[in-house]
Aminoglycoside phosphotransferase domain-containing protein
Amino acid sequence: MNIKFETLINALSRRFKKDIISADYQTMPLQGGTVGNVQLVTGIAETADGDKLPYRIVLKIQKKWERYGDPGSWRREYDLYASDLEATFSDTFRWPTCYHAEINAEETEFELWLEYIDGVTGLDLTGDMYEQAALELGRYQGKLYAEQPDVLQSLNNLSHADLMKNTYLHYRSWPVVYDYIRSEDCEFPQHVRQMLIDIDEHADEILARIEKLPLVLCHRDFWVTNLIYADGKIAIIDWDTSGWGYLGEDLASLIADEADVDHMVEYYQRCVPAYYKGFSEYADVSPIADDCVYEMILLVFGYRLVEWYLHTEDDDEKTKHVHTLQKIYEMKNSPAQG
């Protein structure tokens, strides 16, 4: 791919805090979001003093697209990096530093030049790393909730608090998944089917309970592929779905999205108390200790797992999706340990 030389030099000058006068580069695709073009750019940069510095930097190019129920999400990461949100992060919980951001004149495409963080991610994360991610997330959201920094009022492109609810209701109104779990053809164990039917029957009261929880700034795609553990610290990438959500909402993704199925129940038991512990360092959570994370997991991932099951021909994938639903069922009888 072709890279604008001036932009590369500008990004590298900020990266090294030195006057970079030339650089070569190679690009390699990184596993990025489903709609973004994410490249690892590597090479040697040369300073005005003649020093030669090897570098790795991430280039993310995002074209305009429409996400259901959240039309501004395609450019949200650009808007957040252009804001003062970075000042709210800590040394132990942050996003990658942005060295250069630009959006085209038509506002149909942007690019971000980002810090490359080499660490553990995805299903290589250990239980201790999951627990630390939950603790740091709780601290971050608790601090923002307690302090309400001015930057929160200035963020005008965030997803809305009812996104989780609307996504669930959208799935529930879809006959393909709704009718399947109630049909004689359904191949799920009866107790798994009943778990999904029960959540539908009690959805109004569950959603009413969730809506009494504190509203916090949520990442909303807080799953293992977007977490990087490096040097004892947590970095979070892909902020395009972030917005106002409810206490504990991000934990649903951490525990259940493309999960480490064999350890799901253990991670649920460890992460929920770690998250509340972090939040309670800044704000009181005792009145709302009635744990809604289990219900959030079902609201967000119950029908989604049914959809994935129905839309794959791969038997191993089908088995994995049923196994995931079984583990969610087991969570209800294995409450998180505080």
